[in-house]
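Hey team,

Filing this mostly as a record. A colleague (T.K.) asked me to run one chain through the structure pipeline before their review meeting, and I want the input and output archived in the tracker in case anyone asks later how it was produced. No errors, nothing strange. Just documentation.

Input sequence:
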Amino acid sequence: MRGIPGKFFSTGSWLAIGLALTVLAACGKDDPVSPEPTEPPEPVERPALKIGLLIDLSEGGSEHGILMRRGFEMAIEHVNEAGVLGEPVVGEVADTELDAERAVSEAMDLVEKDGVHAIVGAWASSSTLAVVEEVVADAGIPMISPASSSPTLTNAMDNDFLFRTTLSDRDQGPVLAKITLELGFGNVGMIYRDDVWGRGIADAFENAWEGKLVRVAADPEKTTLVEELRESKGVLEDTQALIVLAFQPQQETIVREALDNGLYEVFVFGPTGRSLDLVRSIGPERLAGMIGTSPGSAQDTPSALAWENGYKSAYGSSPPPFPYVKQTYDATVALALAAQAAGSLEGSAIRDQLRTIGTPPGELVIAEASSIANGLRILADGGAINYEGAAMPLDWDENGDLATGFVAVWQFTPAGTIEVIRTVPFVH
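Output structure:
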């Protein structure tokens, strides 16, 4: 037989070749191919609760605002012992410059640029009202004011997003009227700031007043008020004292011009009169013993004492003799606790928990870092708490106003300091 060299295979040769191919195929199947290296997945970034502080830091309320910022920062530090929803809380600060239009602009930036989920502020009632009606209600951002006390805010168009950690002047004004009568004054003049706050507290005073009263509005922009002071004396000019309801520096102008022109020697002050700047400027020798009222706070409760010790530890000094610092702290803590209780950063969810975290039943939480951290852990586990504020219990009614609280009666001392001489509890 003839064949083609190299192209002819016997049956045995075909079997050998088939076996070799089978072995090669099997080796390829059993030898895994190394996978291509892949990048590790990007960590999922969890959003942090952001709280904005909207207060006056550079104009007539700055004496209070600078210290209110301390209360805010102290609260953030205490909350971050545990964090909210597993993340540290972030604080953002904005200055209203005691101007309602500026307050609205800054609030919009806090919401739209900084992405805050809640706001603490403002200081002036006029600023708070403007922010609520132009920003907060539509944005669905809960807002707690530690200082704005105008009764007008009770019925603001806020969609239930405005709360307060200070008493309304509806409650404070009658105490001021009562204290004035107790001092033996039955015939008084009044100069009040002509804005939503001044008109509100003047009305509350007058509605509770049982003596003679001549009230005169003061344009916030005026730099001299001798004409208004003369008008407040009345026709017979037998007034015994002047009720002063104004912001710095205008209240300083009122007092100085009243003294320099021999119009008044005795003054009774509303909450903004509780000012070291005022007594330093006028002089303790001229103001010592003069009395005023302001938002008060619980005395010697475990929460109040814990907060005072925490303040000393943080700042190396005793707490300042001003209202609103504790109230700022409480507002900030309340928003953090409510967010944790809601398990959400959504505005309405936080709002809906505000009335639950400060009332029984639940584990008592006080104003100190370890207690707040424990409260946050309880809420994370689905439990309930009752936060007792540094200033007062946070028992909010259907309007976001406090149902209980305190009004402080204070006086200037010969040493140029301010001391609280009495605390008046209030319950609706």
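Quick notes for T.K.: The CA atoms of residues 18 and 24 lie 10 Å apart. The chain has a mean pLDDT of 90.
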